[in-house]
């Protein structure tokens, strides 16, 4: 059976949505009508699951607060993946609206279902309408701005030197410092042999955070052959204020090396991390926390390695970077 999930207008589809929710929540689960009809539907985004004959199968809603709820699938249509499609539609809408996070009140028996959808439990179990519930949340990869889309497309076009289009699988666009760090951490988890980092100032927002430095340290210590190469434009900031990766390079000098870019070279304004000539994390403009994670895209990854190697071979070591402070 083919299922379509569509966003619908509450005024137009009110009766059909009412019918599904009454059967599932009020009749089956004995939820009081005063709780079910909470007065929030007028401001919500609503989703309706239909089969090819136009029959109603299920529904869901997204509130302006980021709460996903009223997830309901008719009993005869369950265990067919309809709930997953409704949840995905609501999450996607939240991303388009620019929400940083979505949350929901999950019936305890459905926690596993929402975990498979990327949600995490937050807090202890509680009763709602006489039914055990758990709060759950999910951080979102915010829908990219038009500027980010243009920058990412331009960068991909420049990096790809063949006629083969970049693979879309395992690509995440992000906006915001927290999501940028999360994407970087996910990328670092993919690295196995070689890691390169190109950053103008080794921005502390990304590269001096425990989440990131711990991942890089773990990678560097993983095997004898692993290595980390870091290119920066200036060492003043990290030397004067201190930096976790600077200390790591001093303590693991055979595995982690930092060099300065030759100022005579035309270096890019981007910031990137790439690994194993297979994947990369990219900020097209290093001043802006907007970019993309490509977990498996070797053609542009190899191109980044090539550009990095050219800068690396003409770069130089700074004695200040090598001094180990006890």
Salient structural properties:
single chain, 326 residues, Aminopeptidase, Endonuclease, Chain A, 2 domains, 25% strand
Description:
The chain has helices at 10-28, 33-36, 82-96, 111-116, 146-159, 177-188, 204-207, 210-220, 236-241, 244-251, 298-314, 319-322, and strands at 3-8, 45-51, 56-62, 68-73, 101-107, 120-121, 126-128, 131-139, 171-175, 194-198, 227-232, 256-260, 271-275, 279-283, 290-294. With 326 residues, it is of the alpha+beta class. It folds into two domains: 3-139, Aminopeptidase, CATH 3.40.630; 146-322, Endonuclease, Chain A. A hairpin with a 6-residue loop joins strand 14 and strand 15. The N and C termini lie far apart (68 Å). Mean pLDDT is 87; it is low at 159-169.
Count of helical stretches: 12
- For the CA atoms, what is the radius of gyration? 25 Å
Rounded mean pLDDT is 87
Query: How many structural domains in the coordinates?
Result: 2
CATH fold name of the largest domain: Endonuclease, Chain A
In a few lines, what is going on in this structure?
The protein is an alpha+beta fold.
How is this fold's topology laid out?
Blueprint lengths: L2 E6 L1 H19 L4 H4 L8 E7 L4 E7 L5 E6 L8 H15 L4 E7 L3 H6 L3 E2 L4 E3 L2 E9 L6 H14 L11 E5 L1 H12 L5 E5 L5 H4 L2 H11 L6 E6 L3 H6 L2 H8 L4 E5 L10 E5 L3 E5 L6 E5 L3 H17 L4 H4 L4
Parallel strand pairs: 10-11, 11-12
Antiparallel strand pairs: 1-2, 2-3, 3-4, 5-8, 6-8, 7-8, 9-15, 10-13, 13-14, 14-15
Helix pairs in contact: 6-8
